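Lay summary

Proteins are chains of building blocks that fold into shapes. Our project writes down both the chain and a compact code for its shape. Here are two examples, one after the other.
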Amino acid sequence: MNVRLWVALDVSSQSDADAILARLDGHRDIKVGMELFYSAGPEYVRDLIGRGYHIFLDLKCHDIPRTVARAVGNIDRLGVELLTVHAAGGFEMLDAACQAQGTLSLVGVTVLTSLDSKGLADIGIFTPIAELARVQAQAAAKAGIAGLVASGGEVQALRQLWPTARLVVPGIRRTGDAAGDQRRVVGAAEAVRLGASDIVVGRPITAAYDPKRVLEQFLRELSG
């Protein structure tokens, strides 16, 4: 499997994002999340695509089906490759998103990697994380979207449940890296062994003294 490594530009300005990109030696698979999108807007996404970058837009769309469908249609016209929607939005929302997706691929976010069982219990969800992810996966597969975003702790079971899914694993860390606000982290090679098709790496690369060197370390790890 050819695993994709998406570098997350978790910064608040176009100038900061461009400074990181300049230090990545032409790596083209880039994740743009809410922080940057809400600052720089769709114009910056178009600019990145025009410069030859492949964009994973991580907006975690979650609303009534009609609203999400219209948002997905607008995002498709930007030319991005991958977009996140919240699997918790339910089958009808996921189905509406799928009907509007055009040429982009959709992946459903299961349980955020910043949440653990305690965090879920704090908002009244007592279903075990693995079971919650399984139920969400079934709804996503039924709707026809490409796959899921899940932590390394759930990805193996999800791969067995849904062999053809695109499984995106964030929360990737090396030994010794700070977890930050992540609660469920995993190493790059371990994520791939468990069944990831894509991994997302942010601060371990972008906050490094030498981002290019750290990126190359991750890519070597993925290549075996």
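And here is the second example, written the same way.
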Amino acid sequence: MAKVLAFALTGSGPLPQSTYELLGGARAVADAAGGQVHLAVLGAGVAGKIGDLAAHGADRILVVDSEHLAVYHPDAYLAAARAAAEASGADVLLLPGDTRGRDLAPRLGYHLRAGIVTDCVALEASPDGLRFVKPVYGGKAMARITVRTDRKVAVMRQRSLDPRAPDPSRRAEVLNVEAAIDPSTFRTQVVDHISEETTGIRLEDAPVVVSGGRGLGGPEPFKQLEELARLLGGAVGASRAAVDAGWVPPSCQVGQTGKVIGPDLYLAIGISGASQHLAGITGAKTIVAINKDEQAPIFGVAHIGVVADYREVLPHLLEEVRAARA
């Protein structure tokens, strides 16, 4: 493995947190194998966003800047990603596990004739080559996959990799890459772009997530969860059952059919732990579960479990956190 190429899909906004996570993972495997880390930054007006990327592990930064990349369009981003991949010559390509990365990866893999692994949570250097680790069977087991094609594409689950501590002394070569982006050749047309309005920290980026499930019994207890999340500097999540009941909006859903997250702390309150929900929290560093059913599957993955009615625990927890914050 000579080079690892990570992608930052920025659009017209700031660099996503996944950029630093991918750099951290790429740097670790490149150092183990004696390789280099390249980073492709795709977007519009990205020149002012690359200042700290060398410090976080990039040896070479490839900039693809175009007005056609201001909003994600699959054909435009595919052309930009292909140009960056060819300019880099990397044999391992890492994309973020957000909606854009998951859409772009199979397209890019097809055009590069590369094997692709999705929903990876770790990268391992081995004598047989780089191995991609991903959860299977709803998170009940981990598969270690070796890809035999010359080029390899991996979609990394968000918050599964740790960013590298910045080293201000590092320097990186910056290369502007021209991509043949011709809107007249696009096979699809974006007729509207609707942004999800969020207040506070995005669920996918939150270091702490406080989630509620069917066991809360209704929408009112979520107000307490919102206060707890605010005090802890986090965000509120929910199980599919709570979303289907209309207690919280779909944007709060955590799980295989909702948001896949990896916070430092995950509080599951009144959540039984169905397999599709557990598949969405395998990246969580610490899981704390509160449920009155001692047989609830959530206790099988929780690092700390409290068998009790949440109404007996949550008020005291809120009181202690308020006191600590004060």
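What can we say about the second shape? Residues 208-325 form a domain with the Rossmann fold fold (CATH 3.40.50.1220).
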